[in-house]
Amino acid sequence: MVKNRFAQILLIIAGFLSIAIAILGIFLPLIPTTPLVLLAGYLFGKSSKKFHLWLINNKIFGKYIKNYQAGNGMTRRSKITAITTMWAVLLISGIWATNVLFIRLILATVGIGVTIHLLRMPTYVEDKLKIELNEE
Known about the structure:
Layout: H1 5-27, H2 33-47, H3 49-56, H4 62-69, H5 76-97, H6 101-120, H7 128-135
Helix pairs in contact: 1-2, 2-3, 5-6
């Protein structure tokens, strides 16, 4: 938990912004919901116990945080969506937003790092029926 009140407020604002964009991701297929919810969980965990508990116990988003914290990871679909969206945004940014090679290298490095992190994360199947079908 951060002690600086200004930093705490900024983290809370960033957490709610992340949740707002994640909600858009439910309806817009190019916005990755799960990583944004996980980011909000991290931000709230650093800034507000109240908002962190609210998010963990939320009936829509709570499962993402709980699965991640339990070490279950993300669904295959969430991983594919997150990686695809991230690389699309990084490529668009690198091609049209900047001509500076150093910034393009930073974007590529971030993309590679996040991709490796997501691919190394455990993949889980969302419901028990899918698990039973995969075992047969």
